[in-house]
Amino acid sequence: MSNSCKGCPSSSTSGGCSSGHDPNSCGEKPANNPDDEKIAKTLGRIKHKIVVLSGKGGVGKSTVAANIAMALAMAGKQVGLLDVDIHGPSIPRLLSLSDSKPHIEADHMEPVPYSSNLWVMSLGFLIPDKETAVIWRGPMKLGLIKQFVRDVSWGDLDYLVTDCPPGTGDEPLAALQTLGPTAQAVIVTTPQGVAVDDVRRSVTFCRQLGNPILGLVENMSGFVCPNCKTTHDIFNSGGGEALAAEMGVRFLGRIPMDPEVVRSGDEGYPFMKVQADTPTGKALQKIVEPILALG
Ligand SMILES: Nc1ncnc2c1ncn2[C@@H]1O[C@H](COP(=O)(O)OP(=O)(O)OP(=O)(O)O)[C@@H](O)[C@H]1O
Ligand SMILES: [Mg+2]
Ligand SMILES: [Zn+2]
Predict the structure, then answer these.
(1) Is 165's C-beta closer than 6 angstroms to any atom of ligand 1?
(2) What share of the chain is helix, strand, coil (3-state, %, to 5)?
(3) DSSP 3-state assignment of 195?
């Protein structure tokens, strides 16, 4: 039955042939899954995929992801910002887009525009309210995250920045698997008793999946004093840099703890948009430089 699977009317979408032909014995490679082809087509139009993750919660992943995306957009790049935090999506709030809804067509969805070159997608746009508990298990999360790539018309992007929930669970796994081996990780940590194990777990996770690590960011490193406007080293800063060196990961830089970052997050405007000239803004810009240098 040499070529019988090719064009066989019962050839299934998931490869092989539902009529019971053994794809191995019939000599045909299983047909590619059209969903995967659609994902590949979308990804082919995205130059750089950046995934922001951390073993720990509350270290500033969403803040860093939103501000990296904002800074790239301010540099004139076409940018997508994808929030794969399914249980606690925070990107819509950080950008004052909580009341926005993506435009939905039969076969695709338009991401929500923040500006003419920054586009956002988050489950937060699709669930009716913040209180809706989203009880989803692993395979459903993978399905949703695939949809966020496959069915969202991202168009031609220079960068797609993805914000993950903490840890090395279903969402970051699905994000890296969907975005593929060229997706580069940005790992965020804090200097407080530098979470060696957390960072190591994140690094190992990326390496096991075969994804390159763009670098490590030490957030909340030192404190920008609202009185004298200088940075006080109230916690031990610098641990992240030593840790990055120890693990053979590039150190992207440190961002001080700055009450203005909290305020901008609470008020829903990206820090980089209005405070780029402050020490914290400059620290963020320094972290964005090597990302911009990717071209
Ligand atoms: N450099 C900073 N200075 C001061 N506050 C900061 C800084 N970075 C983040 N924060 C604040 O810390 C809190 C947690 O930040 P954020 O939500 O970005 O963390 P996260 O790692 O995404 O959290 P989660 O693990 O829940 O997703 C927010 O209130 C945010 O405003
Ligand atoms: Mg977050
Ligand atoms: Zn001071």
Answers:
(1) yes
(2) 35, 20, 45
(3) coil
CA 165 to ligand 2 center in whole angstroms: 5
Q: Does the Cβ of 281 fall within 6 Å of ligand 1?
A: no
Instruction: Look up residue 160 and give its two tokens.
Output: 């797609």
User: Mind listing the pLDDT tens digit of every residue in the chain (295 residues)?
Assistant: 333 333 333 333 333 333 333 444 444 445 578 888 999 999 999 999 999 999 889 999 999 999 999 999 999 999 999 999 998 899 999 999 999 999 999 989 999 999 999 999 999 999 876 666 677 788 888 999 999 999 999 999 999 999 999 999 999 999 999 999 999 999 999 887 656 788 889 999 999 999 999 999 999 988 888 788 788 876 666 678 888 999 999 999 999 999 999 999 999 999 999 999 999 999 999 999 999 999 8
Which is it for the CA torsion 137, 140, 141, 142, positive or negative? positive
Kindly list the distances between the CA atom of residue 4 and the CA atoms of 13, 18, 33, 85, in Å, as whole numbers in the listed order: 16, 12, 18, 44
Record the pTM: 0.88
Q: Ligand 1 pocket test: which of 62, 162, 219, 225 has the largest number of ligand atoms within 8 Å of its C-beta?
A: 62
Q: Which of 51, 59, 63, 91, when mutated, tests ligand 1's pocket best, judged by the most ligand atoms within 8 Å of its CB?
A: 63
- Give the domain 38-292 fold: Rossmann fold (3.40.50)
CA dist list (Å): 111 to 108, 126, 234, 267: 10, 11, 41, 22
